[in-house]
Amino acid sequence: MFFIVIHYVLVAINIASSEIHSLLHTCTVFSEPVNLTGIHEFTAIGLLDNRMIYYYDSTEQKKIPKQKWMKEILEQEYWDKGTEYEKGEEKRFETLIRQWTSSLKGIHVLQWLYGCFAEEDKNGTLQFKRVLDMYNFDGNVIQAGTLLHVTVPYDMKECMDMIKTFLNYSTSELINASITEPPEVFMFATRAKEKTNIVLTCVATGFYPKNITMEIKRNGRVLTADDGLLSTGVRPNDDDTLQRRDHVEILRTDSANYTCRITHKIISIYVEKTWDRQLPLNDDAGGAITIGAVVVGVVLFVLVFVTGIVLLMRNRKHRMFHLISLKTVLDQLALDDLNL
């Protein structure tokens, strides 16, 4: 009997403080069929800034686009050639894992994680940061040199060309979507630690790109950090759009007029919301006004496919597989210098 623990964890990039972009590919192969739904003997996926852009597995044997812009812009020839390439990778990795496990019992797994990172400067120019090329066997990092007779080192120039092209397409799609569906803006009050005070918050969500201006005003005067104004900065939503939340603590008895103004010149958005003066309850049993599920949580969100490697654990009665997430893999590389 098999038990599986799957971590659908994505490495989240702090968009507010970092302009690091990535194009990563993973190939995962098992030494023999796992016989679990959704787990194939061989799987390959592509990730642009940690968003899945293509998918291939040994069952379907077809490279499939996972983003709308990829379906619309890239010719069928691209997908046909990509399918043939992934079929070749499937054969190479099946050969390699058979060689590695010929004297071993049980199910084993090998994963190749490769790609590149680029840094975007203030002018929007991408500069190469580093190449990633690593392998894992049953949860242990192995030296790339031991596999060079089977795999080819990833080409830096090719990766940079692809990341520039793909970012251009995906950015254009997000901007068009933001123009069609303008960002939502909310202004509301929640309880503060001091019962005499409240926290007044403005939230904008669903915009792209990040060049947004948010201002909370008291009787027409724009509040600043000197007034206690705090901001989360621009953060990612799980649908590739962005959000920002600013707040300030004020007296519950403050009778001034408070408004929140949002401007976004690139997508020609101007929104101004006035606080409706609805106050949160001021006792332990009461609840503050919230916007529920409208504001999407950030930093941690899931992928459709497990981009992980399997650590095999055995005991007398059961065999258990633990899928180690892509975050764990990158942590092993000590990529702190990339501000991931």
Account of the protein in words:
With 340 residues, the chain is an alpha+beta fold. The chain folds into two domains: 2-178 and 302-338, Murine Class I Major Histocompatibility Complex, H2-DB, Chain A, domain 1 (2-Layer Sandwich), CATH 3.30.500; 182-294, Sandwich (Immunoglobulin-like), CATH 2.60.40.10. Helix content is 19%, strand content 37%. The protein is built from four helices and 18 strands.
**Can you identify the CATH class of the largest domain?**
Alpha Beta
CATH topology of the largest domain: the name is Murine Class I Major Histocompatibility Complex, H2-DB, Chain A, domain 1
Low-pLDDT stretches? 1-18, 284-340
Portion of residues in helices?
Answer: 10-25%
Give the N-to-C terminal Cα separation.
38 Å
The CATH architecture of the largest domain comes to 2-Layer Sandwich
The count of helical stretches stands at 4
The fraction of residues assigned to DSSP E strands is 35-45%
Q: Tell me the overall shape.
A: elongated
CATH superfamily of the largest domain: MHC class I-like antigen recognition-like
Number of strands: 18
Largest sheet, if any?
Answer: 7 strands, antiparallel
What's the domain count?
Answer: 2
Biggest sheet, strands in spatial order? 5-4-3-2-6-7-8
State Rg: 24 Å
The succession of helices and strands, N to C, reads EEEEEHHEEEHEEEEEEEEEEH
Q: Give the overall average pLDDT.
A: 75
Structural class: alpha+beta
